[in-house]
Write a structure and sequence with these properties.
The chain has 2 helices and 20 strands.
Length: 284
């Protein structure tokens, strides 16, 4: 008996694999006498099926070696078109319509479609009900994750999945679907869509030589170039800068490096939130 679970992404990463050997079921009971009764509270989700050596193997694709992926994931290999779009860039408290479009290049029995919406930046207002949102009565933990399970898809036919969202917090947000992303910058009275991803200070950014020389020229002699735990480039800098107080921290704000004075010494776990130093809570 083998059980496999995969991540829902383009790589179909195997995350759990369990195998049980030497298992016997209903030992000593002839097939003619065995009767299976559905336990109380259990719902039957598929029709009865008796294995038959003459029947074809299940429709699935090998990921690596003998590991097989379920068709709801494997079928993503057979898409001739995928596109994630949005009706408008919503400012704070405004709404927008998300549309995810796909065209399969062959007939498909089932597919798992998902669009991930940042739950701290948007509220899911409604989702179209053309297709089921659950499978086996399973409900996603994240209420902002829009999920569909379309069935019996036809080759070269466009299918669209729609949802309406409302911006509830300002900031830079990324909406993600398989093969597509939308980069939204939301402000109180305006918003815009970027063509490129937002810089991620946690992952860091290497400073090229010209940038480093320009920073050196603009620095005072008593400034120490350093970074907080969220600083993106400390490991890439030389150790030739003076270390006399007061030290400063440099942060990338999306368009330029900004110089910030060190946090008050009274702070135990200081964190720069983009505008001021704050005390980091235990959950972050």
């Amino acid at each position: 008996l083998r059980m496999e679970m995969y991540e829902v992404d383009d790589n179909l990463n195997l995350v759990v694999k369990a195998e049980f050997n030497n298992i016997t079921f209903n030992a000593g009971i002839p097939d003619s006498e065995f009767i299976f009764e559905v336990p109380e509270g259990v719902q039957v989700v598929s029709d009865d099926w008796v294995p038959d050596a003459a029947q074809p193997a299940p429709v699935s694709e090998a990921v690596s070696g003998s590991v097989m992926a379920h068709p709801i994931f494997a079928n993503w290999r057979y898409m001739s078109y995928r596109n994630l779009s949005i009706s408008n860039a919503p400012a704070l408290n405004q709404t927008a319509r998300i549309t995810y479009s796909i065209i399969p290049d062959r007939d498909m029995e089932i597919l798992h479609v998902q669009v991930t919406i940042p739950d701290d930046g948007f509220e899911l207002m409604d989702i179209d009900d053309t297709w089921p949102h659950t499978r086996y009565n399973w409900t996603p933990r994240d209420a902002n994750t829009t999920t569909w399970y379309p069935t019996n898809l036809s080759k070269d036919t466009m299918y669209q999945f729609n949802a309406t969202i409302k911006a509830v917090k300002t900031g830079n947000w990324t909406i993600v679907a398989r093969g597509g992303e939308i980069y939204l910058s939301v402000s109180k009275d305006s918003a815009y869509i970027r063509d490129e991803p937002f810089p991620d200070p946690l992952k860091g950014r290497r400073i090229n030589e010209s940038e480093l020389e320009r920073m050196r020229a603009n620095m005072q002699a008593n400034v120490k170039l350093t970074s907080s735990s969220d600083g993106p480039f400390a490991s890439d800098l030389p150790d030739t800068f003076p270390i006399e107080p007061p030290p400063f921290h440099y942060f990338w704000n999306g368009t330029a490096w900004i110089k910030v004075e060190s946090p008050p010494k009274s702070m135990v776990r200081p964190d720069w939130n983009g505008t001021a130093w704050v005390e980091r809570n235990n959950q972050s």
